[in-house]
Amino acid sequence: MLRQKYSALVSVLMIMLLILSACSGGGAGSGTASQPAADPAASEEMQELLPEEGAKLTVWDSGDQKAFIEEAAKAFKEKYNVDVTFAELGPDKSMGQMVTDGPAGVGADVFAGVHDQIGQGVSAGVLMPNDWFEEDTRSRNSELAIKALTYDNILYGYPKSVETTAVFYNKDLIDAVPADWNGVIQFANKFNDTKANKFAIMWEVGNGYYVFPFLGGYGGYVFGKDGTDPNDLGLNNEQSVEGATFIQSLNKILPLKTSDINADIKKSLFSSNKLAMNISGPWDTGSLKESVKNLGVGMYPNLPNGKPMTPFSGIKAYFVNAYTKYPNASKLFADFITSEEWQLKNFEMNGALPSNKNAAASETVQKDPIASVFLKQFENSVPMPSIPAMAQFWSPMEAAMSSIWNDNKDPKQALDNLVSQMKSNISTGQ
Fold first, then answer.
1. Between 116 and which of 14, 98, 128, 384 could a Cys-Cys bridge form, CB atoms 3.0 to 4.6 Å apart?
2. For residue 33, is it within any domain?
3. At residue 112, does pLDDT exceed 50?
4. Distance (Å, rounded) from C-alpha 109 to C-alpha 128?
5. What InterPro entries is this protein classified in (predicted)?
């Protein structure tokens, strides 16, 4: 009798457990009873970034990018049903403008800028990190470009193109850029005619952008090894002094004042067959092709220490305004227009050198004799430091090089003054 009652009690308990299980929402294929079935719509939203309803975007970039952006905007509209409007404001001015316009709510949603302005943007709080597409952005772009766009271990921006300097040459005047500076000097001794304004090679001697390839090639640096430590200035170390001393020695093949050498003067002499080699960047490719029939470009000549020169490089990127009303749509567009497809399109339309590894390695780019050399030189370049202290580099360096080049001042003394001035400016926040 007791056994029967016990069996009946067990049966009742089993029935109650089955009922409770059914009421809990569990069922065939639903996993554990305590976990509700997933909402398919919510799951899809988690896996895909969708633009905000009614999103409309404004994009800032330079005028030469207008047609390219408008073509990309049309394709983006077809895919996401989001209107994109172009407004002209170049990468050199956009970050400073965004510092004012972003918080005021009138800045572009997406804007083109250069990586060395990131510190300014982060300090002002106007940059939204590249978070949603970070993994894809890192995997598909040059490591140098990603490093340049990373600030305090956070990736900002979506790289669109890269720039550095190399040596344009007139094939009617010289067969190729010499392998080293000894070859350049030997050629200059034959070619130069200062009375006729004929020179073998020219660069902006007083401009820190063109000075650094010499200093860096000898082992000098600006702010620590990674360009991030404003307390570690390597511009007056033994290696930098050696580089500046070598620069000073080149005055004999370019006996002009620093004020008499600028971009326009170089371009004019080069176009009139009075300059054989012109150190500049890909931004001059279009105009130089028009004025020099047999244009070539070569890597920098090696330094007397046997090492290659290390020019500065710049990475142009699209940034998302931290104050945008449409962060999802903005991120989608910044990622869309910097894809492999659209970087190739920008190269075809404007000659912009791709940061995307597949685009850079494509036949379209590699068969271009000028673009391929600049990309090769880019791989042996140093991204300009992006910390705010970099603003204190340019004017003191110009003054130091003016005294070294024009006044034959002792390079060590001039560079010591440079570093002292930079430290003072950095400490006072000038």
1. 384
2. no
3. yes
4. 10
5. Maltose/Cyclodextrin-bd, SBP
